[in-house]
TrEMBL record:
Molecular function per GO: iron-sulfur cluster binding; metal ion binding
Keywords, alphabetical: Electron transport, Iron, Iron-sulfur, Metal-binding, Transport
PANTHER family assigned to the protein according to its UniProt record, in alphabetical order: FERREDOXIN
UniProt organism field: Natronorubrum tibetense GA33
Gene3D superfamilies assigned: 3.30.70.20
UniProt cross-references to InterPro entries, sorted A to Z: Fe-S_cluster_ET
Protein name according to UniProt: Ferredoxin
Length: 81
């Protein structure tokens, strides 16, 4: 499973931070940060989701009020949102 986070879309509600510890608050920018990720395109960061964190990653994506977090299965198909 893979997660993509669009930092430009993020509005800093930090609901993802409460759901998954891979997200952290960046108070300087007013946005969340996806730790251990790499920028795959301008403003979009991605990383693999460990098996034991899959549920947390899904909750983080579902709680994002602006759909800045997308979850993909191992075949590359988007499953959330």
């Amino acid at each position: 499973m893979r997660v993509e986070f669009d930092e430009d879309t993020c509005i800093g509600m930090y609901q993802c931070v409460a759901e998954w510890d891979a997200f952290e608050e960046d108070k300087a920018s007013g946005k969340a940060i996806l730790e251990d990720s790499e920028e795959v395109e301008d403003g979009v960061f991605a990383r693999e989701v460990p098996e034991d964190a899959e549920l947390d990653a899904k909750f983080a994506a579902r709680t994002c009020p602006v759909d800045a977090i997308r979850i993909y299965d191992d075949d590359g198909e988007q499953i959330i949102p």
